[in-house]
Amino acid sequence: MSGRMTDRQWEAQNGTRSPLEAQEQGLCWHCSGNGVLYTAFGGIQRKVDCPERCVNGKPRR
Fold first, then answer.
1. pLDDT tens digit string along 36-58?
2. Does residue 35 contact residue 50 with C-beta atoms inside 8 Å?
3. Residue 35 pairs with which residues in a beta bridge?
4. pTM listed for this prediction
5. Rounded distance, CA 55 to CA 13, Å?
6. What is the C-alpha to C-alpha distance for residues 22 and 57, in angstroms, rounded to an integer?
7. Is the distance from CB of 30 to CB of 58 less than 8 angstroms?
8. Is residue 29 within 8 Å of 59, Cβ to Cβ?
């Protein structure tokens, strides 16, 4: 078995916080403080910079 994650496992790295929960914790509402988003389709797994251009997962001021 390879060490590769399934698409579902890969996307689970985004976390479970809602945008409101992230904001209440002082984190970027879009990426929940990760600074990146994990996306996958058909075995192609990508890590994309947060489109909000947050600073290390914290909202820009």
1. 999 999 989 999 999 988 888 88
2. yes
3. none
4. 0.80
5. 19
6. 10
7. no
8. yes
Query: What is the CB neighbour count within 10 angstroms for residue 59?
Result: 16
What is the rounded distance in angstroms from the CA atom of residue 13 to the CA atom of residue 20?
18
Neighbours of 1 (CB within 10 A): 3
Q: State the amino acid at position 21 in one-letter form.
A: E
Strands (E) across the chain are located at 36-41, 44-49
Three-state secondary structure of the chain = CCCCCCHHHHHHCCCCCCHHHHHHCCCCCCCCCCCEEEEEECCEEEEEECCCCCECCECCC
Tokens at 23, concatenated? 């904001």
- Kindly compute the dihedral angle of the four CA atoms of residues 43, 50, 17, 41, in this order, to the nearest 10 degrees: -10
Q: What is the pLDDT of residue 2?
A: 56
